[in-house]
Amino acid sequence: MWQKFLDRFLNRFVRTGTLEASFPDGTRGRYGDGSAPAVEVRLTDPSLLRRMVLDPDLALGEGYMEGGLTIAGDDLRGLMTLALRNLQQQNAGGRFAALTQAPGQVLRWLDQLNPAGRSRRNVAHHYDLSGRLYELFLDEDRQYSCAYFRSPNDTLEQAQRAKKAHIAAKLLLRPGMRVLDIGCGWGGMALTLARDHGAHVLGVTLSEEQHRVANQRVRAAGLEDRVEIRLADYRSVTGRFDRIVSVGMFEHVGLPHYGTYFAKVHDLLAEDGIALIHTIGRSAPPSRTSSFIRKYIFPGGYVPSMSEASRAIERQDLWTADVEVLRLHYAETLRHWEQRVSANAAEIVALYDERFLRMWRYYLIASEMSFREGRQCVFQFQLSRKVDAVPVTRDYLYRSPATLRVVADEQLAAE
Amino acid sequence: MWQKFLDRFLNRFVRTGTLEASFPDGTRGRYGDGSAPAVEVRLTDPSLLRRMVLDPDLALGEGYMEGGLTIAGDDLRGLMTLALRNLQQQNAGGRFAALTQAPGQVLRWLDQLNPAGRSRRNVAHHYDLSGRLYELFLDEDRQYSCAYFRSPNDTLEQAQRAKKAHIAAKLLLRPGMRVLDIGCGWGGMALTLARDHGAHVLGVTLSEEQHRVANQRVRAAGLEDRVEIRLADYRSVTGRFDRIVSVGMFEHVGLPHYGTYFAKVHDLLAEDGIALIHTIGRSAPPSRTSSFIRKYIFPGGYVPSMSEASRAIERQDLWTADVEVLRLHYAETLRHWEQRVSANAAEIVALYDERFLRMWRYYLIASEMSFREGRQCVFQFQLSRKVDAVPVTRDYLYRSPATLRVVADEQLAAE
């Protein structure tokens, strides 16, 4: 019965591209219009038939991770492209899609209720994984967020340096300024802003592992007088800061807490302050986050659309001075990460196991393709309390000392 | 009775700055905290007492226009600053302001129902005014929208040229491209894109006066083979365009029609096309447009917040590739316009009358102060259908041929 349902579902769903599937009972099916991408999958676990019908997103990920679903040539990128393009086609017709989303909205809301205790557990789930794992696929500064590729030939290290310089330029930093870094990760941004821009930085994280590593790095850099890393929820921070930066943290906040988040940003920001919020975003109308990603990778996470974020910002008496939409940069970043994961596959299997490696590769590749197919992007919201805190043209971003320093350093390195 | 109400209202409303008022019966009142700005007004028309209580926004404008309200030193900028700062203060406390806005939302909706017939009448109300009037206060190219001041010392003519160059750069034009200009005004943008960038432009306007003048200019420039100006509603246009530009027209669309507007932009845009929508916006949560402006200047108009515009864009399967928020540029533009109106006051009185002159100055100065005090701004939404239609960094905008040409022309002119 489930095989019949799945066959019917695939017949309706695959309109573009080609999918060849072999089922556990040995029968085969062919779907789509014969065009590229052409992908061949083998289902060997009979329980996947039912699971694919009920929650295709979760079952696809679990099938790949557990080995019940294999792809010819391990062409996971091809399979994700096929899935995303057909999903896109189905959405494109539905201008009234928003009307059908009410039940989904309630579920989304529940997914994202993140009181402080649950936030800590959600964070521990991901960021307290072995530090060695992150060393094996991130750049040397452990930037675990979208890099900024000024050229497709940039290395990951160059692109992450360029990202930090671009953000520093948007913050219009002056030496001695007090900066709050909400969700400071392993401290790379805080160290850069203190070392290269003379800022005094308070970084907060909920991850014990990140807190420990970041503190080690601060001591190693001899920057204890200018950088403090605190194991704390951003909602507990008090005081006033000249600048606030938050990179790759807003994705964990959840829609029900956007008001709290931006109210806190407003209240912690000095009267002539500037904040830069860097977050994954979506171009399409709001929808639920992938159930695989929610279950295995980022519990409690939610990717906002521009209207969802800006609606919350408008209510807090904050100016949006600029919104940059970084398209495709995260696809490139994820491609680099996955390359490093594959290059270090043996060590990751030794750290965890084969299943973990497949889960991690599925997460990175599914995410990469979602950015490449234009389902997701990154928003950089530059915010202020005063209308004139930020220059009235954006020229300064493209000739700022921070940007020019990165260019100069690279030219020196190339010589 | 009404004087007592007005006195009580002013006592509650004026928290910052100083207002001295003299009433029709000769009594006087003093409001505020004694700080700047200090403004002195004289009310001589007894009917204004009631009207100020019931609709202060409308009564203030009408009082100034009809002469029943005069300001010491004709300091209308001071009075508007005082009013806007106190309005701002009252809003700042109200994080739950949105909850109280439901009745306002219904009224806003009705204000903005603009079927084609009403759109034509609304447009005629403003844009079919004597062409001579617009000649007297706009720049030489009749750009009736926010200019782009790269320096505060720019002349209005320079800033309007820079605006067109900036928009052209965002459109990434190549010679021979088909461009649609929705709301083309007197044809300045269409002529520039055809002459300087080799584009083939269809401009549409609902104003007979603009249509007549724009066609004259096309013939005078000998560009009939590359520019067509059509007296038409944008909703009647069919076909596909490589680029769509719409400057200062979206303000007239009205919230109930945002879906139609962006669906039309989507459908008229080529698969790899780019659209640039330039519109007045607000940073604060949605609220009703000034009743004076609605009654006398722009019937049917509505200024969107970023979330209102982006919500409509997201639903149409369009990518927002970039959002620039032009702050303060329109304050400068309006200051230039008002200076030219004042310099040509005698001729405007001869064209119309004293009342019209005062109405026009009130409109320009109230608008200028609303931008200067950070109540309003301009959004430039750069849209596309494909994720990679626009370069992945914004560097190209700051070294584009269009931008560089403006800089070069000015350097040549200065020599």
Principal-axes geometry of chain A comes out as: globular
* Rg over CA atoms of chain A: 22 Å
Largest sheet of chain A: 7 strands, mixed
CATH architecture identity of the largest domain in chain A: 3-Layer(aba) Sandwich
How do the SSEs of chain A run, as a string of H and E? HEEEHHEHHHHHEHEHEEHEHHEHHHEH
Give the total of beta strands of chain A.
Answer: 11
Provide a count of the helices of chain A.
17
What are the SSEs and their pairings?
2 copies of one chain form a homodimer.
Chain A: H1 2-13, E1 18-22, E2 28-32, E3 38-43, H2 47-54, H3 56-66, E4 69-71, H4 76-93, H5 102-111, H6 116-127, H7 131-137, H8 156-171, E5 178-182, H9 188-197, E6 200-205, H10 208-221, E7 227-231, E8 241-247, H11 258-268, E9 269-282, H12 291-297, H13 306-314, E10 319-326, H14 329-343, H15 345-351, H16 354-372, E11 376-384, H17 401-414
Parallel strand pairs in A: 1-3, 5-6, 5-8, 6-7, 8-9
Antiparallel strand pairs in A: 1-2, 3-4, 9-11, 10-11
Tell me about this structure:
- The structure is a homodimer of 415-residue chains.
- Chain A has 415 residues and is of the alpha/beta class.
- Chain A folds into two domains: 2-92, Nonspecific Lipid-transfer Protein, Chain A (2-Layer Sandwich), CATH 3.30.1050; 116-386 and 394-414, 3-Layer(aba) Sandwich (Rossmann fold).
- Helix content of chain A is 48%, strand content 18%.
- Chain A contains 17 helices and eleven strands.
- Chain A has helices at residues 2-13, 47-54, 56-66, 76-93, 102-111, 116-127, 131-137, 156-171, 188-197, 208-221, 258-268, 291-297, 306-314, 329-343, 345-351, 354-372, 401-414, and strands spanning 18-22, 28-32, 38-43, 69-71, 178-182, 200-205, 227-231, 241-247, 269-282, 319-326, 376-384.
- In chain A, strands 7-6-5-8-9-11-10 form a seven-stranded mixed sheet, sandwiched between helices. In chain A, strands 2-1-3-4 form a four-stranded mixed sheet.
- In chain A, helix 3 (56-66) crosses helix 12 (291-297).
- Chain A is globular.
- At the A-B interface, helix 13 and strand 10 of A face helix 13 and strand 10 of B.
- Strand 10 of chain A pairs antiparallel with strand 10 of chain B.
